[in-house]
Specification:
single chain; transmembrane; Nose resistant to fluoxetine protein 6; 8 helices; transmembrane helix; globular; membrane; mainly alpha; O2_lipid_transport_reg
């Protein structure tokens, strides 16, 4: 609990990802999204981004299979995992914005994702509340199993999007409409 209060939720512990996003945005702004890369450089960017992203997600696999990491390695992971993940994500954004996204850009640009993408920030804001309500309202202990975790994930996912939709319609949409009226957009 002390680690959550003192480290996890503090905004300055997220400065690395903020800076990565700032740098990617600045590069895209300064180049006006007009960047020429050799195909080998673009491919290398994708390989590095995929490697970094997969390492942050699956790099700890061994600790759950009887191969604990040393305190120093675990500290290094905790200190860098979010920034490393964002470097990989930053490449995806850069590549898709500059024409090197390929099939990833095709998937991310699919029109069917537009309604969900408009709710993502609202989902980000309400998901802790949804999770707390779901987990604190349980009458029995949570039994950890693969199917149970999948069930919990989809339940929380659908509940979060439902609450986000209602919050968006009740709060965000009226203010967007008001903004259009005030600023005559």
């Amino acid at each position: 609990q002390a680690g959550f209060q003192n480290i996890y939720i503090k905004p300055y512990t997220r400065i690395g990802p903020y800076l990565v996003g700032f740098v990617v945005g600045y590069i895209l702004y300064r180049t006006n999204k007009k960047v020429k890369l050799h195909w080998a450089v673009a491919l290398l960017g994708w390989v590095i981004a995929a490697t970094l992203s997969l390492l942050t997600q699956y790099g700890l696999w061994g600790i759950f299979n009887g191969h604990p990491l040393s305190d120093n390695v675990m500290t290094l992971y905790d200190a860098t995992c979010r920034t490393v993940w964002c470097i990989g994500l930053g490449w995806v954004v850069f590549a898709c914005c500059t024409g090197y996204g390929g099939f990833v850009n095709t998937i991310l640009s699919w029109p069917g994702l537009i309604p969900l993408s408009r709710l993502t920030y609202c989902c980000y804001l309400v998901h802790p509340i949804v999770m707390l309500i779901i987990f604190y309202s349980r009458d029995t202990m949570l039994i950890m199993s693969d199917i149970g975790l999948v069930q919990s994930f989809f339940g929380i996912f659908m509940s979060t999007y439902g609450v986000a939709f209602i919050a968006s319609m009740c709060l965000e949409a009226p203010f967007m409409r008001l903004e259009k009226v005030i600023f005559k957009r």
